[in-house]
């Protein structure tokens, strides 16, 4: 019930919005307009927004309910309707209890911006605050497209963009700093500059950079119409007013940029290159705030750790929430602000320069900056001195005496040690390789690829101000490559990785390597020789170099003679670069050119990613000599990369110590999360390397005498085991198959317990690596575990799946704390002696106290309850819904568990049910009490939200303003829980019944828990808990049925509504996982889609599903196939498998590895080493027929889906799949890397792949992703604010989130990417195009680097960037980006995808703008066809598409076609919206205009026919569309609406604002306000171009 209600609610909101916006962008499929009385509930459909973080019941009735925060009646009133359905339900569908997952989810976050786009364009900050606090931001008067006040709110143009980074006075008060530049509405939207009164620049430049605008600042402050005094310092009063208007957030957060440098981007550039240096400093300063509790002020004055409260606050419209802490925070913020200062740095050989620093930085960070700066990058061994005193590297700057503004720091060269010399050589090698992508292709050192710069050709420059060449039309070459045009069938692969000009690196040296004379003999050591290098310069000079304590010099050794004496002339240079500069002119020239190029690259192209990203294709690269790489490979780099010489890291100690760090306040939590994240990413990297070494046979087993499958390994203090069933441990659960899935289940358990984060309970660092067909589990080692037998050490749980069970009071106490968030029930089981043992986890969860005294839990594979659909149990009846779908079904192992998302969604669902049941019963009781006459008119309909403004009497007789039915239940439940005896027995009864009905384990409050041991083979329960066990069994059956009857249909419905738009297998899997649907249900999901009435509209999902099913089945087969292959046959075996899988060649023959070298003696001894069978050539006999037969049977057995195809060609034909897409999917899933070249899959005469095409095989790694919790709460609150139309506060919160994310994750992370995308969207809506461009550019780079160059998210980011480029008049760049996005989408999916319609509309519009009409039509007509298919021919999107096509035909003077399309559009508008709707009127106007044009043209033609060549005719004028009109249409299709305002509206608005201010007081006393103008709703349904805000400026100028 909950879901359908939720759905209706969503539908209602969606309909309201879709009237306005016919073609929404991918990310805007959610009801966002701050319209409809759903005030706070607007986040309904937005997965990312639902701000829930804990077990559901604690959250629901968004605080307002209790009345505690919300004296404003009106507000509550409309909250309430929203609430029961939204407050309580917002969460139901999206399973947003895993909000974090969603941040990663592509759309989840995408959703916001788009819609965010809708109206907020202009909610004025105060008017709008007030307004929103009232019933709901009525778009028309509250949502004026008045971007004025937005000046302060927006974090950029004037400031971030145009003021030179150093120019901002550091200590300026938060807003005065901005006020001067900000207070001008005119700045808001460069595209509307042309018609602005007073200062219109030439209309040709819609994108006039904001820097051009401040000229008008003086003229317009009055424009604000919102009582903001014009003078700059006055800004404070404005803020005061904001605060009074009731949003605590406005200020303390005020653009975190209050700290100097409010440009959100500046903080992210972690790598200070020359231009980015100051920015880096500023980033630090921002973080500084994080370091102080004041950071907390940002969340409505409540510490972000009270996430839920903060979240609730955020959802209310911020009424009166200024917690008392606010003023205090304000003071503090100001104190912190004036802390940044500048120091002078004096380095040998260059002019002194100044550097901005922050007191929170360490001296070491200045070292990093100097090692990255172009002119000092060649130094590594130096100290910084202040007045002759050496600064300690790890001291914070604020602790150094005498360091202040203008201090002079000297860079002093220090003597080398062997370690320093090695670090120096490695650093020089890194500088020489800095532009070389080979590390990224090889998946080394967290390097990854990015191609954005190839398409922008550096155009974006500094926020797009470098080249303005887009505006002159002639220069644009718009023709896309053939393969990108609609309808093209070829899908070339080479275009995926275009050749980057910078990659042909300037050669500086031929060879730089360690000399064979190392290490120096004793007598030379005593002369200070540390090591010898051998160099061949580009001029072909061979030299031998000594690294000594004093620096580097040439010696007289040759390749064969050792002579360590200095050569003549003897240069001694402290840096190797200086020495090489002297001996090789080419080196000198090329090295400096290389460094120039290096610092010009965007920092995001070179920062390391936190986890390695592998590329599935790579060009043929020549293998160059590289001393450091060679050394790394053979010293196995144990711990060296962290420069901890001679010792390996104690991973367990590091992982656990970081968990123990204090977390009482924000700075402590940031420090802790940062440490946890860093250690996790290092551990993951080390574990991955170790796992590969184990499988490649480079690690000695700790039990070498056992057979290979049983072996275990220890390397670098990490324990490795293989995914095989050792000693029949999993015999009852499915043997090897169970042993294979157990590690991933265990990892999920570790992830969950880590997230709950209970103090005193420890988990092991766990990483699961799939490599070459084997699964390896890497774990940190519990201290002392290796010295004792498992039996002695386990003091809690069972080591034999429940035969012997022990418990321990300390473990029970610790696990008890996790039981509520994890919904685990405390229960008793019997051990082998029939004694009752109490547990608070599944039996096989073991507790071990390590030698370090810590309580560890391991083997968490059954943290979540079993999935009964895949676990047939004798004598147990499954619910009807399950039987209908053919469940229960025997699975190949018995470890199938429900996902955490499912458990959460199920509990939420039950909670709604509980609330409704209780509310219904209360109402019935109420109905019998006459004194509450009419308190709840719509009594019985709990679904309607029972929202009324009458007073209702609550149980204890006190009158509670507006407490509605559900709220009473909430209150009652709380009162009963607190057990204070004031509750009458009837009400207790109500709650008891409701609890019983929904299966709660407590009868006084809602509390659903699962017993994870139910149906575990071998676990026995005592008689006493028989009834409880029965209830638990029923609950599990209900949960299994819930998955089938609610979650799968819910997923399909979301796909139909296009709220979920997967583009490839990974995004589909993510969408399923978010709803708690395991991948083993994939067959069921596809079958469900096939039976859905709107089947054609789900084509894309069906196609992705089938592709995923085929490639997953193939992956299962590939895994066992690879296990039988020895290393020398790997490339032959993989290419043979791919030929059987994808090639049309009927009988590919495998080349056995014996080809290259034939060994004379057969080596009999090493039979044992191979993990597979004795016959290592079995793989060679596989045929395509056999493989596809296996794929079909695997699909049937595992996914229960019958595939109708016998080979690749049939599959491609029957299911309309692309082979190149299947190749991408299988490569990503198995870690195969193939050569970048064009593959011909359809050649029947020769196989597609040869062994030379297989370049590498990478590991596929699963690991824990530690989260930045505070940052995420800020992000969510920001999203919620934005959705309520509070752009300014939203912007500030999101900026703050960005700071905190940077603080925890460093500069690169998917969540930072989401943050940047949203910021860019806000900047754009607030009219700051150049800032939007700069933030979006970062988002694109980050998405490419962290997710992959063709990940669906990256495609979306490219589209947004293209829009912002267009708005900045960079037309050719915009086109290049759109073409790139289209190419990637074709490769990843193909043409037939709803998202392609949006993309093609974008391309068509831009082409229309540059007068490429024929090309434009091809794209627009394709978009029309796709929209008609996926949205139905009657949808508003299709109407808009028709209109766009008509416009192009009009430009071509083909009026008949134009009329035909516009008529179609008009008909749709008329039927959907009615005759009187603005849209319909607009369309009919346009039709009239077209008809006139057509008539005029016809007359002219007649004239020509009649009079022949001497006809005298007035030439017809066909005007090119103006850029502004194209941009308007682009905004509409991408879901960004600016709300139009007329003069009259403005006057009304001013009056309204004043009235609101007067009412402010009366509102506090709870008087209702009269409802707003009805006209508002009509009005807001029509989008209008940005220039529509212009009247604002005129009227008040």
Report the span from N to C terminus.
Answer: 55 Å
What proportion strand?
Answer: 5-15%
Give a count of the beta strands, DSSP E runs of length 2 or more: 25
Q: Give me the Rg, rounded.
A: 34 Å
Plain-language structure description:
This protein is of the alpha+beta class. The chain has 54 helices and 25 strands. A hairpin with a 5-residue loop joins strand 19 (846-849) and strand 20 (855-858). Helix 29 (900-927) runs antiparallel to helix 31, helix 35 (1099-1123) crosses helix 37 (1184-1199) and helix 43 packs antiparallel against helix 44 (1352-1367). Residues 13-338, 462-474, 636-646, 931-963, 1155-1170 and 1564-1597 have low confidence and may be disordered.
Features:
25 strands, 1597 residues, 54 helices
Short description:
By secondary structure, this protein is α+β, with helices and mostly antiparallel strands.
Secondary structure layout plus pairing:
Elements: H1 2-18, H2 73-87, H3 99-104, H4 106-117, H5 125-133, H6 150-153, H7 157-162, H8 176-182, H9 235-245, H10 250-253, H11 276-290, H12 307-315, H13 325-337, E1 341-346, E2 353-357, H14 363-372, E3 382-386, E4 389-390, E5 408-413, H15 418-432, H16 438-442, H17 452-456, E6 509-514, H18 522-525, E7 529-537, E8 542-548, E9 551-555, H19 576-583, H20 585-600, H21 603-606, E10 617-618, H22 627-634, H23 651-660, H24 666-695, E11 712-715, E12 718-722, H25 735-756, E13 761-762, E14 766-771, E15 774-780, H26 790-793, E16 794-796, H27 809-822, E17 827-830, E18 836-839, E19 846-849, E20 855-858, H28 880-884, H29 900-927, E21 952-953, E22 959-960, H30 965-978, H31 985-998, H32 1026-1056, H33 1065-1074, H34 1082-1091, H35 1099-1123, H36 1130-1142, H37 1184-1199, H38 1208-1214, H39 1219-1230, E23 1232-1235, E24 1254-1257, E25 1260-1263, H40 1269-1283, H41 1287-1305, H42 1310-1325, H43 1329-1346, H44 1352-1367, H45 1371-1388, H46 1394-1409, H47 1413-1431, H48 1436-1451, H49 1455-1473, H50 1478-1507, H51 1523-1533, H52 1543-1564, H53 1575-1580, H54 1590-1596
Parallel strand pairs: 1-5, 10-23, 13-20
Antiparallel strand pairs: 1-2, 3-4, 3-5, 6-7, 7-8, 8-9, 11-12, 12-15, 14-15, 14-25, 16-19, 17-18, 19-20, 21-22, 23-24
Helix pairs in contact: 4-42, 5-9, 5-52, 11-41, 12-40, 19-20, 23-24, 24-41, 29-30, 29-31, 34-35, 35-37, 35-39, 36-37, 40-41, 41-42, 42-43, 43-44, 44-45, 45-46, 46-47, 46-51, 47-48, 48-49, 49-50
């Amino acid at each position: 019930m909950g879901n359908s209600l939720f759905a209706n609610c969503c539908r209602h909101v969606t309909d309201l919005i879709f009237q306005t916006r016919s073609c929404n962008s991918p990310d805007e499929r959610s009801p966002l307009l701050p319209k409809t009385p759903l005030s706070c509930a607007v986040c309904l459909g937005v997965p990312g927004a639902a701000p829930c973080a804990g077990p559901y019941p604690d959250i629901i009735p968004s605080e307002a309910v209790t009345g505690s925060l919300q004296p404003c009646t009106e507000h509550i009133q409309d909250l309430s309707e929203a609430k029961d359905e939204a407050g309580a339900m917002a969460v139901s569908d999206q399973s947003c209890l895993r909000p974090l997952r969603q941040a990663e989810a592509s759309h989840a976050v995408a959703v916001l911006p788009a819609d965010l786009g809708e109206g907020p364009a202009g909610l004025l900050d105060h008017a709008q605050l007030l307004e929103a606090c009232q019933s709901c931001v009525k778009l028309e008067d509250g949502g004026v497209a008045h971007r004025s006040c937005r000046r302060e709110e927006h974090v950029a143009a004037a400031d971030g963009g145009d003021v030179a980074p150093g120019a901002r006075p550091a200590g300026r008060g938060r807003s005065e700093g901005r006020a001067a530049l900000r207070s001008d509405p005119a700045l808001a939207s460069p595209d509307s500059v042309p018609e602005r009164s007073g200062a219109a620049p030439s209309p040709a430049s819609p994108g006039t950079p904001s820097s051009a605008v401040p000229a008008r600042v003086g003229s317009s402050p009055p424009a604000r119409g919102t009582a903001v005094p014009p003078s700059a310092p006055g800004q404070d009063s404005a803020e005061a007013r904001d605060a009074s208007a009731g949003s605590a957030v406005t200020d303390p957060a005020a653009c975190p940029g209050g700290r100097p440098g409010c440009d959100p981007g500046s903080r992210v550039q972690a790598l200070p290159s020359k231009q980015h240096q100051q920015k880096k400093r500023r980033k630090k300063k921002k973080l500084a705030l994080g370091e102080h509790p004041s950071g907390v002020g940002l969340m409505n004055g409540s510490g972000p750790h009270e996430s839920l409260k903060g979240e609730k606050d955020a959802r209310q419209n911020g009424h009166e929430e200024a917690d008392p802490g606010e003023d205090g925070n304000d003071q503090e913020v100001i104190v912190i602000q004036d802390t940044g200062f500048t120091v002078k740095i004096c380095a040998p050989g260059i002019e002194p320069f100044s550097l901005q620093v922050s007191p929170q930085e360490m001296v070491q960070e200045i070292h990093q900056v100097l090692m990255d700066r172009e002119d000092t990058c060649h130094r590594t061994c130096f100290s910084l001195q202040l007045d002759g005193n050496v600064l300690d590297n790890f001291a914070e700057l604020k602790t150094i005496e005498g360091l202040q503004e203008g201090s002079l720091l000297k860079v002093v060269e220090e003597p080398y040690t062997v370690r320093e010399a090695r670090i120096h050589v490695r650093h020089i090698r890194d500088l020489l390789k800095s532009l070389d992508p080979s590390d990224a292709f090889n998946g080394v050192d967290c390097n990854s690829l990015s191609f954005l710069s190839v398409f922008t050709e550096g155009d974006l420059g500094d926020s797009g101000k470098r080249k303005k060449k887009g505006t002159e039309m002639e220069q644009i070459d718009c023709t896309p490559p053939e393969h990108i045009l609609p309808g093209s069938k070829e899908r070339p692969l080479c275009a995926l990785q275009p050749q980057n000009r910078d990659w042909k690196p300037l050669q500086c040296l031929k060879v730089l390597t360690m000399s064979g004379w190392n290490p120096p003999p004793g007598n030379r050591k005593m002369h200070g020789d540390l090591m010898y290098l051998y160099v061949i310069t580009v001029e072909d000079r061979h030299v031998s170099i000594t690294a000594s304590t004093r620096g580097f010099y040439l010696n007289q050794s040759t390749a064969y003679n050792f002579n360590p004496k200095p050569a003549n002339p003897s240069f001694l240079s402290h840096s190797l670069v200086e020495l090489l500069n002297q001996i090789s002119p080419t080196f000198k020239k090329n090295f400096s050119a290389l460094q120039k190029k290096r610092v010009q690259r965007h920092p995001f192209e070179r920062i390391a990613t936190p986890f390695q990203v592998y590329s599935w294709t790579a060009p043929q690269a020549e293998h160059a000599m590289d001393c450091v790489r060679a050394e790394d490979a053979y010293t196995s780099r144990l711990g060296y990369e962290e420069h901890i010489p001679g010792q390996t890291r104690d991973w367990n100690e590091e992982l656990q110590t970081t968990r123990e760090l204090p977390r009482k306040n924000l700075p402590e939590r940031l420090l802790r999360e940062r440490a946890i994240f860093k250690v996790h990413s290092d551990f993951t990297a080390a574990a991955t390397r170790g796992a590969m070494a184990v499988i490649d046979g480079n690690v000695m087993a700790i039990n070498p005498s056992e057979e290979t499958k049983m072996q275990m390994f220890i390397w670098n203090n990490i324990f490795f085991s293989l995914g095989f069933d050792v000693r029949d441990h999993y015999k009852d659960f499915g043997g090897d198959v169970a042993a294979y899935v157990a590690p991933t289940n265990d990892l999920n358990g570790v992830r969950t317990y880590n997230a709950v984060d209970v103090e005193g309970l420890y988990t092991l660092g766990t990483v699961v690596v799939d490599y070459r067909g084997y699964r390896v589990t890497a774990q940190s080692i519990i201290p002392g575990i290796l010295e004792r037998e498992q039996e002695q050490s386990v003091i809690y749980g069972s080591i034999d799946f429940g035969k012997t069970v022990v418990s321990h009071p300390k473990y029970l106490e610790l696990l008890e704390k996790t039981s509520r968030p994890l919904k685990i029930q405390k229960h008793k089981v019997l051990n082998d002696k029939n004694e009752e043992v109490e547990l608070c986890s599944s039996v096989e969860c073991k507790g071990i106290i390590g030698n370090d005294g810590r309580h560890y839990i391991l083997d968490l594979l059954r943290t979540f309850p079993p999935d009964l659909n895949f676990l047939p149990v004798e004598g147990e009846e499954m619910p009807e819904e399950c039987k209908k779908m053919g469940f229960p079904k025997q699975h190949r192992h018995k470890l199938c568990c429900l996902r955490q998302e499912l458990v959460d969604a199920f509990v939420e669902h039950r909670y709604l049910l509980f609330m409704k049941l209780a509310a219904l019963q209360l109402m019935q009781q109420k109905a019998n009490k006459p004194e509450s006459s009419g308190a709840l008119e719509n009594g019985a309909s709990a679904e309607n939200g029972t929202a009324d403004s009458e007073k209702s009497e609550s149980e204890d007789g006190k009158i509670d303003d507006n407490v509605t039915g559900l709220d009473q239940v909430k209150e009652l439940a709380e009162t009963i829980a607190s057990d204070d005896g004031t509750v009458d027995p009837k009400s207790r009864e109500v709650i008891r019944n409701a609890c019983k009905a929904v299966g709660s384990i407590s009868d006084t409050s809602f509390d659903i828990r699962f017993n994870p041991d139910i149906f575990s083979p071998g676990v026995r329960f005592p008689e006493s808990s028989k009834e409880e066990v029965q209830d638990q069994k029923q609950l599990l059956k209900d949960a299994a049925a819930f998955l089938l009857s609610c979650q799968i249909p819910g997923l399909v419905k979301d796909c139909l509504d296009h709220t979920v738009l997967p583009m490839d297998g990974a995004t589909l899997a993510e969408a399923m996982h978010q709803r708690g649907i395991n991948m083993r249900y994939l067959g069921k999901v596809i079958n469900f889609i096939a039976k859905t009435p709107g089947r054609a509209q789900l084509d894309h999902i069906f196609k992705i599903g089938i592709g995923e099913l085929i490639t997953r089945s193939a992956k299962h087969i590939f895994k066992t196939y690879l296990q039988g292959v020895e290393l020398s046959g790997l490339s032959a075996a993989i290419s043979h498998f791919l030929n059987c899988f994808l090639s049309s060649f009927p009988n590919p023959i495998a080349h056995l590895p014996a080809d290259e070298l034939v060994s004379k003696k057969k080596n009999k001894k090493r039979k044992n080493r191979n993990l597979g069978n004795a016959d290592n050539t079995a793989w060679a006999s596989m045929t395509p027929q056999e493989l596809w037969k296996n794929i079909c049977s695997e699909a049937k057995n595992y996914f229960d889906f019958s595939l109708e195809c016998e080979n690749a060609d049939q599959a491609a034909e029957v299911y309309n799949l692309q082979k190149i897409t299947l190749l991408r999917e299988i490569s990503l899933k198995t870690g195969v890397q193939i050569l970048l070249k064009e593959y011909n899959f359809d050649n029947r005469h020769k196989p597609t792949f040869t062994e030379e095409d297989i370049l590498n095989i990478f590991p596929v790694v699963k690991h824990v992703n530690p989260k930045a919790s505070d940052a995420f709460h800020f992000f969510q609150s920001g999203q919620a604010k934005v959705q309520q139309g509070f752009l300014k506060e939203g912007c500030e919160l999101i900026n703050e989130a960005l700071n905190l994310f940077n603080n925890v994750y460093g500069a690169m992370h998917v969540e930072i990417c989401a943050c940047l995308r949203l910021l860019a969207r806000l900047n754009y809506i607030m009219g700051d195009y150049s800032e939007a461009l700069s933030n979006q550019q970062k988002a694109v780079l980050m998405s490419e680097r962290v997710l992959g160059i063709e990940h669906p998210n990256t495609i979306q980011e490219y589209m947004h960037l293209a829009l912002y480029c267009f708005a900045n008049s960079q037309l050719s760049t915009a086109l290049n980006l759109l073409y790139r996005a289209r190419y990637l989408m074709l490769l990843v999916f193909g043409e037939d995808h709803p998202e392609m319609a949006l993309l093609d509309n974008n391309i068509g519009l831009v082409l229309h703008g540059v007068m490429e009409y024929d090309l434009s039509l091809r794209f627009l007509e394709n978009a029309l066809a796709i929209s008609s298919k996926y949205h139905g021919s009657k949808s508003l999107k299709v109407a808009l598409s028709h209109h766009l096509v008509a416009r192009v035909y009009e430009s071509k003077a083909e009026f008949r076609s134009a009329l035909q399309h516009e008529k179609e559009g008009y008909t749709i508008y008329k039927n959907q919206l009615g005759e009187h709707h603005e849209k319909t009127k607009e369309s009919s106007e346009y039709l009239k205009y077209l008809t006139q044009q057509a008539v005029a043209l016809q007359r002219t033609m007649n004239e020509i026919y009649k009079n022949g060549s001497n006809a005298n005719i007035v030439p017809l004028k066909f005007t090119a569309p103006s850029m502004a009109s194209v941009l308007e249409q682009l905004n509409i299709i991408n879901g960004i609406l600016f709300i139009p305002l007329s003069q009259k509206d403005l006057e009304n608005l001013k009056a309204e604002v004043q009235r609101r201010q007067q009412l402010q007081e009366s509102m506090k006393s709870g008087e209702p306000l009269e409802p707003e103008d009805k006209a508002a709703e009509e009005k807001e349904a029509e989008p209008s171009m940005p220039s529509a805000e212009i009247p604002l400026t005129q009227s008040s100028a």
